[in-house]
Amino acid sequence: MSVPNLNWPLMENNIVAADLKAVVAFLQQETPPILTQSSQVKLFEKEWSEWLGVKYSVFVNSGSSANLLTMAALRETAGTGEVIVPTLPRVSDIASALQCGFEPVFVDINPRTLGMDTQQVLEKITPRTKAVFLTHILGYNALDDILLNELSARKIPLIEDVCESHGATFHGRKLGTFGLMSNFSFYYAHHMSTIEGGIVCTNDERLYQFLRMLRSHGMVREAESVELKKSYASNHADLNPDFIFAFPAYNVRSTEINAVIGRAQLKRLDENNQARTDNLNLFLETLNPEKYQTDFITEGSCNYAFTLVLKRANPIFRDNVETTLRQHGVEFRRGSSGGGNQLRQPYLRARVGTNEHKKYPNVDHVHFYGYYIGNYPTLERQKIFALTNLLNGVPEDVLL
Ligand SMILES: Cc1ncc(COP(=O)(O)O)c(C=O)c1O
């Protein structure tokens, strides 16, 4: 029997001819342009801030760097302590907290959003909690009113990792505008791409100055505030004001070329996101709810991936699903986008003990029985039907 190949990668055509043309036009100016961080980066930050609805954005070379700067800025402004993190984020969410001297405190996921379980977050708050570092997984909003109200009442800062959820909303307002700081990634696999790239956003002027300095070696001249620069210069009269290093920091700058691509991409983002949302709805509507989880809370969601989670923990069915996807050329990642239950990963097992992961059954289910499959604007409806048709026909009890 011939097996139709759906030829379905995790991401397709995310950097298009128009983006490359913008780069070529930028490079071919009569006076050769500056390529290191300069006016294009500044413009991209301004346009991104306007699109998102925040005052300040700091463009960096990856979403992981955005995570790192955010944790470093928290450390410099609030000191170290505990940070509540999910068990299903990207490694860099937890690694950045550890690298900046925070103690991560873990919570299980809400299966209907894949984000943190609000009740568990609230239970884990202690006097040492410095922030809740929440990840919106694969386009699903992870916020709710109880969480926002409680954090605000207890004066615990919320930090949002929106690396997988550009354009998603809660109560009609874009994710990434609720937290004290928020992070986005522009890696190729996401809603929009600058090849590699990331951005930190905030409405807090002081944090903005710190983030700018942290991006470039902790160098004070990178701050925009004249008063802040003056105060460092007068407190350190023995130093050249061009070379005052306020913090042990990093160089995570990006380049003008990446910013040019970002500016071109941003023009198409909303339109692309609408196509992705339509695709996800079709996928979930046509998937068999007896076999797969279809009751995700999709309100306000904006996904660059289809979330495929098996209803039951059935290893035979799982192997059959994987065989079917492989046979039909559909690329997938088991454990969702970040590799599943982070507490099973060697970098954490060594710290938290080898049995800790057992306390988080919801994330463990996704670890073994949850997948992500690419969702991009050019996907045709027939292809989505063909995929759900295939998946609905996968046998549950006899190995293929
Ligand atoms: C939730 C989340 N946070 C952070 C990152 C890190 O972004 P990057 O790959 O740009 O370093 C990713 C990347 O995929 C992510 O999905």
Layout: helices, strands, pairs:
Elements: H1 17-27, H2 39-52, E1 56-60, H3 63-78, E2 82-86, H4 91-99, E3 103-107, H5 118-123, E4 129-135, H6 145-154, E5 158-161, E6 169-170, E7 173-174, E8 181-185, E9 198-202, H7 205-215, H8 226-235, H9 256-286, E10 305-309, H10 315-327, E11 333-334, H11 346-352, H12 361-369, E12 370-374, H13 381-392
Parallel strand pairs: 2-3, 2-4, 4-5, 5-8
Antiparallel strand pairs: 1-9, 6-7, 8-9, 10-12, 11-12
Q: How does this model look, in words?
A:
The protein has 400 residues and is an alpha/beta fold. 40% of the residues lie in helices and 13% in strands. The protein contains 13 helices and 12 strands. Strands 1-9-8-5-4-2-3 form a 7-stranded mixed beta sheet, sandwiched between helices. Strands 10-12-11 form a 3-stranded antiparallel beta sheet. A hairpin with a 2-residue loop joins strand 6 and strand 7. The chain is globular and about 75 Å long. 47% of the residues are buried. The model has no long low-confidence stretch (mean pLDDT 97). The structure holds pyridoxal-5'-phosphate. The site of pyridoxal-5'-phosphate (PLP) has 16 residues, from helix 3 and helix 4.
